[in-house]
Amino acid sequence: MDTKKHYKLYKDGKKWCVMTIAAVASIIGLATAANADDANTNTTSPVQTTQVAEETSTSSTSDTTNADMNTNQSVSESTAALPAEQTNNTDVDTAANNEAAAPVQPQGTEQKNGWVNENNNWTYYQDGQVASGRDYTYLPTINGEGNSWYLVDNGVVQSGVQKWAGSYYDFDANNNYQRVDNNYVQSQWGDWYLFGNDGRILSGVQQWAGTYYYFDPTTYLRVDNDYRQSQWGDWYLFGNDGRILSGVQQWAGTYYYFDPTTYLRVDNDYRQSQWGDWYLFGNDGRILSGVQQWAGTYYYFDPTTYLRVDNDYRQSQWGDWYLFGNDGRILSGLQNWQGQTYYFDPSTFTKVVNTDVTVNNVKYHLDANGVAKQVSNVDVKVDRALSQRGVPYVWGGNTPAGFDCSGLVQWAYGLDAGHRTTYQQATLGAHKRDVMNAPKGSLLFFGSDGAPYHVAISLGNGTYVHAPEPGDVVKIGYSKYFTPSFYINM
Fold this sequence. Notes:
Structural class: alpha+beta
Strand content: 25-35%
Number of helices: 5
Number of strands: 34
Mean pLDDT: 83
Strand order of the largest sheet: 33-32-31-30-34
Radius of gyration: 56 Å
Distance between the termini: 200 Å
Largest sheet: 5 strands, antiparallel
Shape: rod-shaped
């Protein structure tokens, strides 16, 4: 009985063990099924897995490129020069990144093809692959309209200022990443650059917006407020806003004039400025002041205003004083200044002092200040006649080449043609008879009142100067030997 009981218990225990094992197995199976469901839920398809990996790689590349771009931008801002190379571009306008603007490869089992927007960068795939390296290539457009040229770096389209083929170009992210031609644009690091008709960055003197500018051949930046030599050798001045300058301009502590047509510096010329005044510029282009020679004479230019000085007595840069007339020309000869008469030497143009000068048959004495006082008119005329002693008698002569008696009188007194002969000259005054007391400068006549045949110029004290007769010369005569008939005062 005990044996049966134990057997029964054994059988009952065996059944319990089996049930227990079954229960445990059931629980483990449920847990396994649950885990299997979770695993199936989290498993990614092969295409998706590839995309995640590629996006992760692109994101990593983008982060690295962004670091490079930031480094380049910092260098550019500190040195005002273009960066050596741009490997990627992250500054893309959100409008250009609109996924609806271009076909994006859908997620699925197929490989990526065409343009795919990844982390705000457009990447071009072909059979799930991107081209390695940097290239300017002809591809379908990002907006899906035909084909165009793009600069791509490891498949990623580039924008902004980029280096390519030994030069720099600009690619506009707002205009389907197209190359920018013939435009002045701001780079991704803030500086402005000019690009030509073929898209290349420009340097030297360039025309833009109706004027000319100069761009440095090394940094390609616009040059302001400097005098620079162009690529063809000529020099030009550029202002504070970079525009080329013309007219009178200040540079390096003085003033120059730049032609409004050629923009070249003008040397050795008298030019009208943009505000109407006239200035003289020298052989080196510098504006001139002081006494300067121009157009065959001399002028004076004020050292402060550089304007021509008219009608003034000025001291030159070397210390001498000169008188300038109403038209600015330097003056010589007898000139009136501040109520006095002065004489300026015709060769040196300086004021003459302490001497006598004769001007137009009138004698002047110049005192220590140069003030001119007229000497007796008679003395001047007598001295003029005496200066011709020894000149031969010539019938009809009235020049220093030869004189007759009335010709000498006409020349010494400056008489007109109506008083050429002795008869005509005898009519210039009342006839007086006290010939031995005739004053100096009076005219002595020989013959009748109506028909005198000879004339002489009295020296006073019974002497005279005359041209006697053919074969003789101009000389001094005496009334006691050859007595005149009458005289007239002049």
